[in-house]
């Protein structure tokens, strides 16, 4: 934390979508720059800051929500033009706010990201990339999944343009002339790109920020597309936006996250693969949607950010602030005047709101009943796939401060929440019910909250777990928004793998479903089973996902009338079979389910995870040991005294190890292994469930006797092998 | 919402672990403060930057300015005060599970040693009542002992629970200190002249108490609540996930130290102004002039032995930070104003959107998912349910809208947390919802009700909020007074109040369907109540001649009733005759069993 920046609030706009604020380059001598921002109300405004007060340069009328804002490429004549996307349309604005261009694409989906290079416009909407050459001639192509972000590069020695795409669940790819030439998979789920300003024009290289919070670099060299993770997520929120901030030290990558934090990382322009140095971090409490660097309020560069709810603020070096008046040419009274002005405005608003509130309340006393239809609260939620310990995270973001959340679930759940909330479990509604009710009371000013959910172990789940969350805001619209969602039955399968990963020798079990059903139907079955978004229905769909904890794979391949699911995890196959038959029964469809279970699938799958099983076992042993050592109340003087000799070196190492590595998922692993055995006995024709054998398995798992586990899993497999001979 | 952090003015390492809550600062030579703490099971460490402590205390290997004192017993509590006559040096008091040792660190001599058969939980020092000596007050498992420097017991009293915190405090402003005692049974009591004069019912076991000014003191509970009382009235309280370790009044702010190592400063309304986070969990926070500059600093100690000092806040100069600039203050104010503006704008937009939609009419089949008739109102009634043995809240709307869910917030009423919720299944949604309540104790409760009202298929519901006051004895239902009460247990006493006042007391403290009214002055008042908790009967008999008889077998209930009545009638002294033959019989049985 080397920089000391402090926050200056400039103005408020409507709710903003990611990447909808841009700083315009300065044209003449003047150093101070203007910026453009587009919001959900469809208003695009260009602002300059004078004495910390925003001065509107131009402002459009409200319209369709603006989902992305881009500037012309810095090297050509369109440098000062602004492009704003709303719906499937893009409008180009001059510096004066005149519309000089309107382009509408043929796809119905909303444009979520775009880039401009020369006279070319590249638009991404859903799975489609539209290339608009010279702002009129359009060509488009589709990818396997949604396109999250795009960057354009000039091809060497030609006028062609190469695109670097981030494709949801697939990783990154390079598109040349409408064809994906190279593709590479990135596990962390990159979502935003930032191209360094000082690369050679033909080079392809960009930093990415990912959903798991990590930051990395994608580079394309000698027809090889590589990615490298530079900073781990470290529990930070997922990246919403990335940008650049340059000062006398160098170029910094700025990262804005969903958890409301902003980080400044110094990059090394000589070698972008160098470790990033964290220089500054700020926490604002609500998701950051756009972030840029430039000279806004003074002649010194500062960071400019927008939040989800529409706050626009700068982070300026404090050094400048303390000597404020002299350096940044701000008359001392200007701030006081601004404050006064704002105070008056708030007072006026308070009065107006009080009037409206009165009117609203009068209505409730009137005898004539009319309908009151308040607009829906703009609250968003996201549900993540399960972590190694089985926790699934739901993230709630609100433009207004929250007061309380009320959670209802028809099944027993383990719950955890943010430090910003106090979780309180309510007594059950009646003794027999298996449902759960809980409330989360939020700290003042909370606009973002996560809830971790996990189905309580050893409860058999017959139908999928429905969760209802009622969001109660703290402020005046006294309305509560309801969210309903289902927790998927196979929450661990959220990481995407490429098709090739199936080729590595694994013993796959298979279910083959045939009958009269559509691809949409299969998608609906899978939506009950798998977390995250599924590929959109097409003629035939193929994808592979991996289990977060066990690393087993699940391959889904389906088309009209036929679906094949393969996995080396027998429990997955068993669960999927149950889910599908449940769905089918509910809808009254007629289908055939054939399954093919390889007898030694458990044994082979266990071989693969054996190593991590042993590591987890050791981790847990060490954790227990550490707890015991801690109970001895050894004091820290032990490290430099003769007392050291009391403990063996192993114990000393354990004792000194940091507390952070204490988390183990050994219990979860044991649970999964036992489930394997049960499902194996259930599905396999040759194996009978024996409770004595199960007890042996349980004991050997607990004691990490892998040989014994293997011999149980291999029991019938080896017999069959003999038969075959 | 911007909360700034503070830089410490001094920092030091003790190089020892520190047991949370067992940290004090004492002047063993009469002038220089020494940080003293328990470091593990039976070890006391003394930090002495101003000179060496000799005697039994051994120089620590880990830190040159720290001495260790090894005892053979677990250390439960530490305290220090100049107990010795004609001597200003602090004597160290060490409380172990069964005894108290007073040790003169400077002289290396034991002042006294005393058995504590009731255990030791907490030791405080100070002047109490008319005594001119400084006393050591020891809180045990159910008792309170005052000791002077000569090992003499000055007073002794019984408390209904494990004592967790004691402070000497002039509660009634008569120039003499009373004792404020915080117990595990969630009650803060004031002890004056060996009598409890005030009981303040709280919502959780009391963990710490701290004086703020002549009339105010702060308290912290095991459920994470902290708050401030002024002359027996609660000014504010806030609840946190963490437990409080210590509360100290520093400068014009209340500093709170939480178990997870967070320290925050709060202004007079409880709002957080500054915040810092220690590198590990907190062990203690004290006020002491550790730098010898004439003003006490806030000394924070973490469980890893890290010590940080913060100067008291003063409004004019800010913290130790260089002079605050007007511009920066303006900026903070602007951020705050922007927050306000944003909230107002959201509200305004809400009304605007609502009024535009009012003009358009909707088909009945196409009711929007957030609609509700404008004249919907919510009614709440409190009744008792004898079969279930509970109080029942009936929440209902005045039209066809349904109560989707109801949240009841009340402290100390629900076993699992601070809320009770009802969420009927989709098929059983009605305009009325019943919620059973069973307060475990006889204390007045404010229940906050949040009801979500709309239609069964709504996506957004309207929140109706209401607060209902449950009187102290709401778990007793008025029944037919002609039923003979055969309960042998009773209390009798005599008062000199008109019956009219008794009627008021009953109306205020019991949950009655309709108020009872005085018919004529000469008739005795006889009321029978049905206890919803244990289905027993309670009879209150007030004769016109001032004779009062409460018939119940529940000693606690009888005590609560008398306390409540005495408080209402402003009685400071009341002679009561008690008759609980059954209870006595049980105690006898018990004693015989253990003989």
Automatic annotation (TrEMBL), chain A:
Residues 332-359 form a coiled coil. The keyword Coiled coil applies. Residues 496-596 form the BBS7 platform domain. Transmembrane segments: none annotated. It comes from the Eukaryota. Pfam families: BBS7_GAE, BBS7_pf, Beta-prop_BBS7. Residues 375-485 form the BBS7 GAE domain. Keywords: Coiled coil. One of its GO terms (biological process) is intracellular protein localization. Residues 21-315 form the BBS7 beta-propeller domain. One of its GO terms (cellular component) is BBSome. PANTHER family: BARDET-BIEDL SYNDROME 7 PROTEIN (PTHR16074). This is Bardet-Biedl syndrome 7 protein. It comes from Leptosia nina.
UniProtKB/TrEMBL annotation, chain B:
Residues 25-126 form the Ciliary BBSome complex subunit 2 N-terminal domain. The chain crosses the membrane at residues 565-586. It is found in: Cell projection, Cilium; Cytoplasm, Cytoskeleton. Gene3D superfamilies: YVTN repeat-like/Quinoprotein amine dehydrogenase. GO terms for cellular component: BBSome; ciliary basal body; membrane; motile cilium; neuron projection. Residues 385-473 form the BBS2 GAE domain. Residues 166-266 form the Ciliary BBSome complex subunit 2 middle region domain. Residues 489-569 form the BBS2 platform domain. One of its GO terms (biological process) is non-motile cilium assembly. Keywords: Cell projection, Cilium, Cytoplasm, Cytoskeleton, Membrane, Transmembrane, Transmembrane helix. It holds the Pfam family BBS2_N. This is Bardet-Biedl syndrome 2 protein homolog. It comes from Leptosia nina.
